[in-house]
Amino acid sequence: MLPLGILLSTPVFVFAKEGGIDTGDTAWVTISTALVMMMTPAGLALFYGGMSRYKNLLNTISMTLVAYCLASIVWVGWGYSLAFGESSNLFIGNLSHVFLNGIDIHSISGTIPTLIFVLFQMTFACISVAIILGSAVDRMKFSSWIIFTILWVTFVYTPVCNWAWGGGWMHKIGALDFAGGNVVHINAGVSGLVLALFLGKRKGYGRKAMIPSSVTFTALGAGLLWFGWFGFNAGSALAADGIAASAFLVTNTAAAMAGLAWLFIEWKHSKKPTLLGLASGVIAGLFYGNPKQVWIQFLSIVGTIAFSAAATVIVILITRMLTNGIRVERDNELAGLDNALHGERAFEIE
User: Fold this and answer.
1) In the chain, which ranges are E strands?
2) Which of these, 28, 208, 300, 310, is most buried using a 10 Å CB contact count?
3) Domain membership of residue 138 as a residue range
4) Structure confidence by residue, pLDDT tens digits, 3-26
5) In angstroms, rounded to a whole number, what is the distance separating the alpha carbons of residues 222 and 161?
6) Number of domains in the chain
């Protein structure tokens, strides 16, 4: 239990030790940034894509990739400034770093270049909005998803990020968020639920089988997510030290235990150990591996849930107004979004 205990007592990672640039820390956070980057356009794209139906596989991967591209531009443009810019209030940063104004190759955050810190934080913003996609697969307009992504990163993600990691009210009351329990997972989870409620069920849900296009893709995606999560969690120490090592160990152990638990429980109940169940368990364990002191952080958790739900409703209403509805037409949904929206198919098998 020692590694977990170390993590639970660790202060929020944004406020790392100060000093000159440490080449070891810089190298590790740079590698971690690349690992977390891979989680969205590769890991999550395959994980979600494999679980979507064949006729929507390409659309699912496209929406994941475009979310990464859009969130990257928003973050460099104004997202980072809103999340980490200095401010007199405890709710949102200012626009002092719009388009990274005032940040150059000599800027330092803790013991790493600020530019690396910006990129590392960018990958968290990207995967956060991409996580929400799982609630919209098979039935959301591509144009609506583009607008939603821009608005959500700007008006939902950046405030919560500021609260926890940018010196906002969560930090002031002592709430801890080592690697995104509030900022990423609760935030995206609540928003995904709200979006799913607005979109409604898929046509035919409950009446006909919704067969995954490729469990193999989902398993490969889970493997890439597992690999990338070492950067997600261990990289959040912002240093190559014992805290990073502890996070690395806890991440792997949680994923392995959860995967096995899901596998054996499913095996007992359905008489078959499925690859989809094993992959789902691994991802569940990776989410659980982000430590949260529930009682200490109760206020911050409730605040995140309430804000995410309300702000996402507003974002959806604006998106719906701008794109004349957020759900695809019935005929397109039944025919499949790959050909209807993109004029392409995932595989040319005919």
Assistant:
1) 108-109, 112-113
2) 300
3) 18-201+214-341
4) 333 333 333 344 445 568 999 999
5) 26
6) 1
